[in-house]
Amino acid sequence: MKVRIKKYDSSRARALSERFGLPILASTIMARREMPEEEVMYSLEDDILYQHSPFTVDDVYTAVERIQEALDEEDGKEQEKILIFGDRDVDGVTSTAIMIRTLRKLGAKNVSWRLPHGDESYGLTDDAVDEILESGVTLVITVDNGISAIEEIKRLEKAGVSVIVLDHHIPGDRLPPAEAIFDPKIEGSGYPFPHLAGCAVAAKLCWALHFASTPLWNSSLILLHAEPGNGTIRVTGAKLENLVVVDTCSDEFLEDGRNSLSQSRLLPFLSCQLPIVVLDKDTELSLLRRAFGKNVDISLEDFRPQMEKVMPKTRGKSLFDLSVYSRAAKYASSNKEMETLISLFKSSSIYSFPELTKNFEDIQQLEAIGTISDLMPMKDENRLIVKKGLKLMSRTPLSCLQYLIAKQNLISKPISSVNVSFKIAPVLNAAGRMGKPEEALELLISDDPGVIEELSLRLLDMNQQRQKSEEEIMEKVSIKAEESLIKNDGKIIIIDDPDVPRGLTGSIASRLSNDKKIPVIVMAGVDGKIVGSMRCTEPWNAREFLSNFSYLFEDYGGHRFAAGFRSDEEKKEELISSFEEYMSTLPEINQEDIEIEVDAQIPKEFMNENVWKTNELFEPFGQENEELLFYIPDGVIEEAYCVANNPKYMRFTIRYGENAWPSVWWDARNNSEYTVGRHVSIVFSPETNWWKGVGKLQMHIKEMEAL
């Protein structure tokens, strides 16, 4: 077993530890993983305050206003018919459920939805457009699709049907002529993070719709703060529109000098007829008079009463005190007091309205499930989205999820991203794979206990059918897999088989790749298109591999070990030959030569529960935030046995330092070597094994070698 521990900048690790109050092990891992300082916030927080605002995208304003118009009932006007057009996978289904739940909360009476049924093609098609035009729908909201439906949306808009596109796929050279588009992958969209799942894009618009129902909607103001210096007063202002900072201005004045506001760049900034808001009006006015003279007359509004009402812990504390102790101050990049002021104002504003926080929590649970299932990079605000959603799901799951969670034995334990990936998402996904995604959607929008139980049982049954179908398909394609393996000198497996359903390409590729430890591509043909899935293990990168052939794809994407693509049927042979030719030029990789990169080697004296606490800081794990791997060079086996007579499933008790640790190895090899008293080196991930509400720390062994 070859282990590699990446070198790191120890001074940066210390700086991270001091700035953010982190354990040195955690800051060392962050330094080793080269985590940017701005990313640390997403490891420590889960508050919606730290998510990006949807109002950075101009089209969000248009979308909100168009939906408000569709729901308007003033002067005897009837609400418009709204159609939510989604997709069959978990991201598409949760996106659709999020929109339906939100519109119903806002009083929508004529909301319908449509998902691809059976083997229907993904996205808006001509047939779907025909249906829409016959239905009397006047507003279509596409979720998790639509960015490439240029001609179809042109038909709808020409016929007087408004279209709002909420998508997260890579756009082509042209954008559809929709009334509004929110896709964070559009260059120049204004949104600061491009890697949202489709459900998160939908959730952003839904939050904006709730925001628009509060007095905060279309609000503009200036936050002002004055700070004394060495004989000077610095005055800083920030202009906020819908709680988004759109401009800032700062100037420094000699204290009690003959300063003139008219000669300062602050004058035009403050002379825009907007309310000027401060914290502690009397203190701020006193400082402004020391800067501009005693006769200065500036009308100020104090938000302290509102802040203390929603955040009682701030009562009586000055802005200076708050900037020292507040969470927001830790993440300030420059002016701590000003950035703390902005954070306090935004927080007090948002938390004044339950629809923006407490009442939004059901949406956040669905958002987490969709983000995890669509293999989004677990960084930036995706970490906040998933972390918050998992916490809510663990504490008070949505009524529509409770029966499924119970049946999957997830009650009385913290639900993790791994639990969602293996216990919840596959069940919801089974409906789409079996051609009945509407059953998963009906579950997620239902509050009827009887309906929820019935649908949950049907989905669980469909998942069993899907697993059975997968086994049957695996038997059929195994011969082709071996043939491809031989043809490509053991370097890659490529399967093109009409018997493989589109919904099973990923799971079949994953099983073959895990077994053979090489890249695997499985393709299925649907309506003149090829849909392919690629899975791989170390040292491969699926997305980078596919990027070499981007010119052959209509669309592609994915991550390190899982990616997919869509192309024209006529390009199939060129695709296969290109994959094979590329692999033939690469040297064969010996699995024994592959180094396992670990996050840290744990000395015996530091092998304690703090290792597990550090692990919690990095959760939730996922793409681009892989689970932590630790290395112990010399442990001793005190207990070893196979579980259920399965030689690949072994449990151990391993002593390392003062403690002996329960351990599990799901993919054991050469198990006869691992006997009581044997010294071993181990690469493991810390995990907690929950049983009847009690958590027990254990090592999840990834690799072990007898010494």
Helix and strand content put the structural class at alpha/beta
CATH class wording of one domain: Alpha Beta
How much of the sequence lies in strands comes to 15-25%
Query: What is the helix tally?
Result: 24
Helix content: 40-55%
CATH architecture of one domain: 2-Layer Sandwich
Report the count of strand segments: 23
- Sheet with the most strands: spatial strand order: 3-2-4-5-6
- Describe the biggest sheet? 5 strands, parallel
Q: Mean pLDDT across all residues, rounded?
A: 92
Shape: globular
What distance separates the N and C termini?
A: 10 Å
Radius of gyration: 28 Å
CATH topology of one domain: Nucleotidyltransferase, domain 5
Characterize the structure shown.
With 707 residues, this protein is α/β, with parallel strands linked by helices. Among the domains are: 220-352, 2-Layer Sandwich (Nucleotidyltransferase, domain 5); 488-590, Roll (Diaminopimelate Epimerase, Chain A, domain 1), CATH 3.10.310; 595-706, OB fold (Dihydrolipoamide Acetyltransferase, E2P).
